[in-house]
């Protein structure tokens, strides 16, 4: 017998309590508890469990062969770690209107053409609405089946019937299971629906793509439980007003999480950008005050982007430090080094730093470039070298430390027609044969002589 009981569940973090609370003790959110139903599993005897499970030596376990589908979209394949793994569950999140449904419809059509029936389930749009989008994207695949449905048990029955090679659920927050009284999108429903989908995916070896909405703060709506259950979590980002879209993986059981996919939203759908540097530098203001071009590695791919700094005088005791696309602590560290080593009075100035194009830069690739942009702005002096790319980590003593894959970044710069690169001295040896002027200082001070 399955018993049900009432619990109060925090809609932010999934914390459960037997009684209502004004504030979630776990994540501290106010008014987030709502009443939900929880099924209690019938208790299993230990002896039953012992019969089912069977420990075995690791050398006797066969490593499963990971089979992958080609999604027909190279940028998506890369982010997934080389294609869509059969039987895997992938969550894709992003702001409304960013292009999740568009990306998935394009993927669905490609897979349908190549591997047979694909089932696209939408709980948000009618079949006709999806057809309008498909027409816009020029999708005519006969094997692409559309179903507008929110009852997950009915969806499961259709999946058993038509045995698709790929299933898309758009979105998990609209799906519900009849036996549960809580509303679609609530923590219990989302959790239960995910359990169901996982079972169907693993039993039939069908890959699932599940769309999940994010809250205003950019968190996955509903609980984090979802992230733990699925194999891969992708996030689709970008400014809605600009066309560049970036797909990154936050978690991937079948690949790395450092790769990104770059797309551009056009009037006939998303197109992939295989050389993102060109796009990011399209409107770059070379040699403008406060601007520098930096090189970064996103996974295995070198990318050049523009970084901009604006330094303005302030009377505030605590001057402003505003960053977009870069870690605030990295900026603070660079500012501290510049104050101490170059005697630049940043404490009297507000500082704004922006990575153009919506990329988020991890690591230390941008250090030296950011320092140069900041110096350029505070001194109101532009870089005098023509077409210069800057890479390098800045250490606390003002030394320029080497970075990984510098040779690949220099190669990319040469390919894009750059004339000069400013790189760490220790990286210089690894570079040969590029038709580009190399400046390789070992300290911050030394760098400045050459470029201003
Ligand atoms: P959509 O995929 O519906 O976003 P999401 O599922 O993430 O909410 O895309 C919505 C936006 O994309 C919408 O504002 C219109 C725009 N768009 C294009 O610019 N070109 C296209 O070909 C399509 C299909 C949509
Ligand atoms: Mg959508």
CATH superfamily descriptor of the largest domain: P-loop containing nucleotide triphosphate hydrolases
How many beta-strand runs?
A: 23
Proportion of residues in β-strands: 25-35%
Q: How much is the radius of gyration in Å?
A: 26 Å
Instruction: Give the class from helix and strand content and strand pairing.
Output: alpha/beta
Global geometry: globular
Average pLDDT level: 89
Give the oligomeric state. Answer: single chain
Helical run tally: 12
- Poorly predicted tracts of residues: none
Helix content: 25-40%
Biggest sheet, strands in spatial order?
A: 8-7-9-10-6-11-12-13-14
Q: Estimate nothing, just give the exact number of structural domains.
A: 3
Bound heterogens, unique: thymidine-5'-diphosphate, magnesium ion
Note the main sheet.
Answer: 9 strands, mixed
How far apart are the first and last residues' alpha carbons, in Å? Answer: 78 Å
Task: Identify the CATH class of the largest domain.
Answer: Alpha Beta
| CATH architectural label of the largest domain | 3-Layer(aba) Sandwich
CATH topology of the largest domain: Rossmann fold
What does this 3D model show about the protein?
- One of its GO terms (biological process) is recombinational repair.
- InterPro entries: AAA+_ATPase (IPR003593), DNA_repair_RadA (IPR004504), P-loop_NTPase (IPR027417), RecA_ATP-bd (IPR020588), Ribosomal_Su5_D2-typ_SF (IPR020568), Ribsml_uS5_D2-typ_fold_subgr (IPR014721), Rubredoxin_2 (IPR041166).
- It holds the Pfam family AAA_25.
- Residues 65-214 form the RecA family profile domain.
- Belongs to the RecA family. RadA subfamily.
- The structure is a single chain.
- The protein has twelve helices and 23 strands.
- The chain has a nine-stranded mixed β-sheet. Strands 17-18-16-15-19-22-23 form a seven-stranded mixed β-sheet. Strands 2-1-3 form a three-stranded antiparallel β-sheet, with no helix packed on it.
- It has helices spanning 46-52, 74-80, 100-115, 127-136, 152-162, 187-204, 225-229, 276-280, 328-342, 367-378, 406-415, 444-451; strands at 3-10, 16-17, 33-40, 68-69, 84-85, 89-94, 118-122, 144-148, 166-170, 208-213, 232-237, 244-252, 260-266, 269-272, 291-298, 301-313, 321-324, 349-355, 388-390, 393-394, 400-401, 420-422, 437-439.
- It folds into three domains: 3-47, no CATH class; 67-274, P-loop containing nucleotide triphosphate hydrolases (Rossmann fold), CATH 3.40.50; 279-451, Ribosomal Protein S5, domain 2, CATH 3.30.230.
- Helix content is 27%, strand content 27%.
- With 452 residues, it is α/β, with parallel strands linked by helices.
- Helix 9 packs across helix 10.
- The model has no long low-confidence stretch (mean pLDDT 89).
- The longest helix is centred in the middle third of the chain and has 18 residues, at 187-204.
- Residues 100-101, 124, 170 line the site of magnesium ion.
